[in-house]
Amino acid sequence: MFGLVVRFTCKDEASAEDFDHLVADTVEQIKAHEPGTLVYAVHRVEGEPLQRMFYELYADRAAFDAHEQQEHTKRFLSARELYVSTYAVDFLSLQTGKGTDG
Question: Contact 73/67 with Cβ under 8 angstroms?
Answer without folding.
Answer: yes
